[in-house]
Amino acid sequence: MTSSPASKRARTTDSSSSPPYELIYWPTIPGRGEPIRLCFEATSTPYTDVTNTSKSDGMQTLKSLISPSPSSSTNIPHFAPPILKHGDLIISQLPNILLYLGPKLGLVPPEDEDENGIYHVNQLALTALDGFLNEAHDSHHPVAQGAYYEEQKDAAKERSKDYIANRLPKFLTYFENVLNSDASKGGEFLYGGRLTYADLVLFQCLNGVCFAFPKAVERLRGGGEYEGVWKLYERVKGRKEVEEYLGSERRMKYGNGIWRHYGELDED
């Protein structure tokens, strides 16, 4: 029998295992929830994508967690998703969740081998999020987060022009330099010669930028200056677990989220 989309997303653990991971994020969009999904998928870790498994119940759960009402729980209130629930622990903020999951999913070097490795991995992930997520979002919403794109289109054109000409190359150069550094240990991955969550974050953010600025990315890829970065991108994309996920119905389509494609914002 063919699995339904909901059952494909609801990859829960059995009762004999540790508490299941529950990802709580806005339904139907990749957004800031996507690097977390990739961490689970790349490591074949069961999880429940709450709002995409049961939209009505999931949204009720999400709204209750970001409610301004005081909570009697020992968990602090949450400003916005993504939110991760693991047993009694409920945490939010994408970098915080990644920092929590890294050791548990084997996506940072073991502490007994590299005591400070987790912080180096986190630094790389934060830089990727700055350059290819936050700044990519601000290219289409440079003036006001709560205003429509159409209300700030002229400013978005100026911001996107600068992003393509200056910011994208700057961040790509940085990650190319990381791959050429001794810390990479071979140039196949960003840190320590192994897959970490920084590689998954960089892949996802670049994938979003490819969607938002396809013409600009095609030119940048064709120039050969960032060969190591794009080889890493393809290496992550081609991993068996990641490839299977990208081809599944669990993978959300881009739309009106962080990474948006407006033809007038891409280069000619």
List its traits:
268 residues; disordered N terminus; 6% strand; globular
Structure class: alpha+beta
Spatially, the strands of the biggest sheet line up as 1-3-2-4-5
Counting DSSP E segments of at least 2 residues, the number of strands comes to: 5
What do the pLDDT scores average to? 92
Helix-strand pattern: HEEHEHHEEHHHHHHH
Percent of residues in beta strands? Answer: 5-15%
Q: Radius of gyration in whole Å, from Cα?
A: 19 Å
Instruction: Give the % helix.
Output: 40-55%
Major sheet description: 5 strands, mixed
Q: Can you tell me about this structure?
A:
- Helix 6 packs parallel to helix 8 (197-212) and helix 8 crosses helix 10 (227-237).
- This protein is α+β, with helices and mostly antiparallel strands and 268 residues long.
- Mean pLDDT is 92; it is low at 1-16.
- It starts with a helix and ends in a 22-residue tail after the last helix.
- 38% of the residues are buried.
- The chain is 50% helix and 6% strand.
